[in-house]
Write a structure and sequence with these properties.
Length: about 575
């Protein structure tokens, strides 16, 4: 390519980046979506004309992380300037009478327009409720900007400054560089795709204790860590615009296996969460199950997430070849798969179980209302899928003894599939779960995951498709509920007990495609991206009747954003 061609591509990319940034800005209300910056721990929310500034920390809620309870800019008459527009790089107040932007990752800059000597403003702030209000003049013959610096211990300092324009330009460039990577999708999905790409960028945090690793966290609002399952789904979306960052999420997820091969549930800035011993005491107490040996308070329970590692790795490799990188992870990945059979088959029947609800990813599902350990069809399906993916990977990557290794993975997948089929209840037309060996009556989305194997008998596939299309089970106005509507446990607002999740929809859609129903898979994918658009953003979960965000669902949620991107790219490619 000529130098001119490269320069033209850059111009086109910047133009597209600016358009994507503007589209994302339409969703930045400072309520559901805060003002933030990639890699920064600062969040700005609004409450009327008052802004509040928080830090973002692992296992700490927003109210624990307030650095300024009140931040506002007043005009010459003393009236607060309202927020009139929010862009990724700036909050505009009073139709541009003042702007707020970032000054690096640990400070904000508040400035008046340059060269307007008549501007007479004041920046007011209250550090904590009940404390005295403080003020600094802004504009006119005073400083052109005020710098709000936030220290690691949450102390804050406000001081006059003069570099506001430079900070605006630097913050704008940061966001334009990010939006230049935003995947191109169908026009009807482009606005939401831009917002979802903003969510992924806004949710980047640095983990200095891990060598300045970049983690794309589920949410800077309370989920500041790299949860293993989230990392897989987030990597699948990131791959379309930033495959290097996608690989970095898998690097972190695979960096800290236990000596026996188990992958930890969470990698965070203070260490890892790999067993119940790593939980706060209150969590251990809440999650004990009467009569369950594995929940004995004296016995640590491993905490991990379902085995979709090879599924995610293979998808990341689809968009950019990185065979040496993948080979570097293959041993850890294969050992983690072995761990399930060697250390989580708690009753020794050849079919691993969940020893703790956290390890399922669906913590509050009614399948865990009974005693542990819990045998579920989704775990069996994931294990089948992972062994099949590993067989292909060892062949593709040309590892030593690839033929024998691939044969072993396929053989174990076949045996696990046979065990999975023992969970089929033909009278109910559903896969059942077992709580400490006893059947669980709940009809949940985990019973649809065996479609992912692509190897179910046709009669079972037909019954599962019928369940998906049955309005008494899973055919809600906005499918697919995590608990069937005809089930007494169905609760449309309660986490994992009825709401729709983008990740489970994505997995069921892929299962339909693998099981011979590509058109049904496409319809579910279309309905899922419609849900995110209708609901106003990539929320954590949605009401299956209204399609709106469920009351307690986190907003600007990482895997919902990433999987919207992934579905939108696939649907756009299909035409």
């Amino acid at each position: 390519m000529s130098a001119i061609g490269a320069r033209e591509r850059a111009v086109v990319g910047r133009a597209d980046a600016a358009a994507a940034a503007a589209r994302a800005g339409e969703h930045l209300d400072l309520i559901r979506a805060p003002f933030t910056l990639p890699r920064s721990r600062i969040l700005v929310f609004r409450d009327g004309d008052r802004l509040r500034v928080h830090t973002s920390e692992y296992e700490r809620g927003l109210e624990e992380c307030v650095v300024l309870d009140t931040l506002l800019v007043r005009d010459a008459a003393g009236a607060p300037l309202p927020v009139t527009r929010v862009l990724p790089h700036a909050i505009e107040l009073g139709d541009g009478a003042a702007t707020i932007t970032f000054a690096g990752m640990s400070a904000l800059s508040i400035g008046a327009p340059d060269g307007d000597a008549s501007t007479q403003l004041a920046v007011d702030w209250v550090a904590r409720p009940g404390e005295a209000r403080q003020s600094l003049p802004l504009g006119g013959r005073h400083a052109a900007s005020v710098l709000v610096s936030v220290a690691a211990d949450r102390t804050v300092d406000l001081a006059p400054s003069g570099d506001h324009s430079a900070h605006l330009d630097a913050t704008r460039r940061t966001w334009l560089d990010w939006f230049a990577k935003c995947p191109v999708v169908r026009e009807d999905l482009a606005g939401m795709a831009a917002f979802c790409w903003w969510v992924l960028g806004g949710n980047i945090v640095e983990l200095p204790q891990l060598g300045d690793a970049r983690a794309v966290v589920p949410s800077k609002i309370g989920y500041v860590g790299l949860w293993q399952w989230d990392a897989y789904f987030i990597a699948v979306g990131l791959r379309h615009g930033d495959p290097e960052l996608a690989r970095e999420q898998l690097d972190l997820a695979l960096r800290f296996p236990t000596p026996d091969g188990q992958l930890p549930d969470v990698v965070h800035e203070h260490g890892v969460l790999a067993s119940s011993d790593d939980l706060p005491v209150s969590d251990r107490d809440n999650l004990r199950r009467a009569g369950s040996a594995v929940a004995d308070p004296d016995v640590p329970v491993p905490l991990t997430k379902p085995p979709l590692t090879a599924w995610a790795l293979r998808k990341v490799l689809e968009v950019e070849a990185a065979d040496d990188w993948a080979r570097g992870h293959l041993d850890v990945l294969r050992r983690s798969q072995d761990w399930w059979f060697e250390h989580s088959d708690l009753d020794g029947d050849g079919l691993p179980e969940y020893g703790h609800p956290y390890s399922s990813g669906l913590d509050d599902s009614p399948v865990f209302d009974g005693p542990l350990p819990t045998t579920t069809p989704d775990l069996a399906a994931y294990l089948v899928r992972q062994d099949l993916e590993l067989a292909e990977l060892v062949e593709q990557l040309g590892v030593e003894g690839a033929e024998a290794a691939a044969s072993a993975h396929r053989g174990r997948a076949a045996r696990t599939l046979d065990r999975l089929l023992t969970l089929w209840d033909d009278d109910r037309g559903a896969f059942r779960s077992l709580a400490a060996g006893r059947p669980v009556a709940s009809d949940t989305v985990v019973g649809l995951m065996p479609l992912l194997t692509g190897a179910l008998p046709s009669g079972i596939v037909d019954r599962l498709v019928a369940a998906i299309e049955d309005p008494e089970r899973f055919a809600t106005p906005w499918p697919i509920p995590t608990v069937a509507v005809g089930d007494p446990d169905h609760s449309p607002q309660r986490m994992w007990r009825g709401p729709v999740w983008v990740n489970t929809n994505t997995l069921v859609a892929e299962g339909l495609a693998r099981s011979g129903h590509p058109e049904r898979a496409r319809r579910l994918a279309e309905r899922t991206v419609d849900l995110v658009v209708h609901g106003g953003g990539p929320h954590e979960y949605f009401d299956p009747t209204t399609g709106e965000r469920a009351r307690t669902a986190t907003t600007a949620f990482g895997w919902s954003a990433a999987l919207f991107i992934d579905l939108a790219v696939a649907l756009s490619a299909e035409g």
